[in-house]
């Protein structure tokens, strides 16, 4: 029988190692778990609530005009036989609607490409070149971002009239490019300055010109930012209504202007408005989900240098 009492020897840790934090009390862990579940349920409830109008629009686009005028869209839960694709067949057979969709593509795609290309070309010297007046240019960019669209409508209308493009697709493209460039340059400059300076300096030491550095170093590294800007610009131009109503003629109008005209007699034209609005909404959503990965990369780009 030993006369020595057992002694608990604490576990030794390597030098410089911090001891692990104490394990929280079971009640604390339970409260945290309940809080996470409650937050997830709240976010899910808010998301479902925001989806209710879209769900109603989708169901209304699949019902006949008589069913839409007699009962609410939720009655389809009891009578799913109301659903039909006739509205979409009629929409695609309508020449004006399909022409408006094509006009929207002709306006959105060139505007997006020009804003991204010109914005990147202007953001690079503002980020990596030293020249007199650079700070004044940056201040002017911030000021231009704050200018509302309504301020430039009348002067631009006069300019387009003098150029002979008033009411046409090129006029809408020019307006969107002019108003999209300040934000594009400001946004891309912020991402370009986050590029490690060692990459740019090493390219300069290797004898690369500024154009080569821009094409082979800055653009590949800043691809997530360029893609994010392209999505922002495309969605903004695609969903625009104010500029279309002011500058577009009837035969040059995008889908938003055509749907706005149909809204004047909404109760009798719901079979046209509902599928048209859903088709118009689907395209930006598809673009967003296709480039969602670039959004995540661009959001993290500024956190690590």
What secondary-structure arrangement, pairings included, does this model have?
Elements: H1 26-61, H2 65-70, H3 86-93, H4 95-128, H5 134-145, H6 149-163, H7 169-193, H8 197-205, H9 210-221, H10 223-238, H11 242-247, H12 255-262, H13 270-290, H14 292-301
Helix pairs in contact: 1-13, 3-13, 4-7, 4-10, 4-12, 5-7, 7-10, 8-9, 10-13, 10-14, 12-13
How does this structure look, described?
With 305 residues, this protein is mostly helical. The chain has 2 domains: 26-84; 87-301, MetI-like (MetI-like fold). It has helices at 26-61, 65-70, 86-93, 95-128, 134-145, 149-163, 169-193, 197-205, 210-221, 223-238, 242-247, 255-262, 270-290, 292-301. The protein starts with 25 loop residues before the first helix and ends with a helix. The mean pLDDT is 82.
């Amino acid at each position: 029988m030993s006369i020595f009492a057992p002694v608990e020897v604490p576990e030794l840790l390597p030098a410089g190692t911090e001891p692990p934090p104490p394990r929280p009390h079971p009640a604390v862990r339970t409260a945290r778990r309940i809080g996470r579940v409650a937050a997830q349920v709240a976010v899910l409830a808010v998301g479902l609530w925001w989806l209710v109008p879209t769900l109603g629009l989708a169901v209304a686009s699949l019902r006949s005009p008589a069913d839409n005028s007699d009962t609410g869209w939720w009655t389809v839960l009891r009578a799913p036989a109301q659903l039909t694709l006739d509205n979409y067949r009629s929409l695609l057979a309508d020449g004006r609607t399909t022409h408006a969709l094509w006009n929207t593509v002709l306006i959105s795609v060139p505007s997006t490409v020009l804003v991204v290309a010109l914005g990147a070309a202007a953001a690079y010297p503002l980020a990596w070149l030293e020249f007199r007046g650079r700070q004044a240019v940056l201040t002017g960019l911030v000021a231009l971002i704050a200018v509302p669209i309504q301020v430039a409508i009348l002067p631009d209308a006069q300019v387009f009239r003098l150029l002979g493009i008033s009411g046409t697709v090129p006029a809408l493209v020019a307006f969107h490019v002019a108003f999209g460039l300040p934000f594009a340059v400001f946004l891309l400059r912020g991402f370009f300055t986050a590029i490690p300076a060692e990459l740019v300096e090493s390219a300069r030491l290797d004898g690369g010109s500024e154009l080569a550095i821009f094409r082979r170093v800055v653009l590949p590294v800043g691809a997530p930012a360029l893609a994010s800007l392209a999505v922002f610009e495309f969605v903004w131009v695609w969903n625009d209504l104010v500029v279309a109503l002011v500058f577009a003629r009837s035969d040059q109008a995008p889908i938003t202007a055509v749907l706005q005209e149909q809204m004047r007699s909404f109760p009798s034209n719901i079979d046209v408005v509902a599928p048209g609005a859903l088709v118009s909404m689907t395209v930006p959503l598809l673009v967003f989900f296709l480039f969602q990965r670039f959004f995540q990369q661009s959001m993290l780009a500024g956190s690590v240098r």
